[in-house]
Amino acid sequence: MKFFPEHPAFVPPEKDEYKVWRYMDFTKFVSMLARRSLYFAGLKKMSEEDPFEGLLPDTYFQCRSWKTVEDIPEHERWRLTFQPRPGQTPLEMVKTSMEEFAQTVFIFRKVLYVNCWHMNNFDSAAMWSIYAGRGSGIAITSSYESLQASLQTSQKLFGGKIIYSDYSAEIVDVQSNLLGTVMRKRRSFDFEREFRIVFWDDSSLRDSSKTNEMLERIDKAVMPDGLEFQCDLATLIDEIYVSPKSAEWYRELCSP
Description:
Elements: E1 19-25, H1 26-35, E2 37-42, H2 43-46, H3 90-108, E3 112-119, H4 125-131, E4 137-143, H5 144-150, E5 157-161, E6 163-165, E7 184-186, E8 194-200, H6 203-206, H7 211-220, E9 226-230, H8 233-236, E10 239-242, H9 248-254
């Protein structure tokens, strides 16, 4: 069986979280069946709905108010090992490093694509309402193991559950981990209980040896809103559910 690679930013679900649901409208369900694929939405596109998607928490930017080296918290002192640029003090060097990383995170949203699932042993009224509010929705269930086994691609895909936190209070030790930001969301979304599969289009890394050039090229690039990855649907899908708000004619249409 194919497994998601281990990575510190991706926390696998617990045993009782292995059942996952994907809610969608009927047209997306038909598209999935016809194309035999899973759709991965671009993180940049998703930020139109949630502008905090894939960004650093507010607490990260407290660095802008630091006055002395003593203000640098322990989890950011590793940056003091960097070589300061000419004319910079150690404090200025740390601030510059953090601002550059924040800019990198912002730009890199354009090369991150995600496929989202809801972890639950039962269906969710909230998820039906959000993703199938008009009563014409479909939900499919799968499992952590089946998700991994069903994907038919040579590309490296990561999988893990979203960590929910208070962006205005919680200190996050990012350690320059670009993938860490895509796996965190604000606590107001914790009802989603999201399991997320992530594809990082790292082709830009292979095409450039200079970070500044790479970021400039990504920033100017026109990236697709989403990507599709082939999937063995027989392996993926355990059960199919019709929205409880569906009209009788719709239930009959969806019945085998």
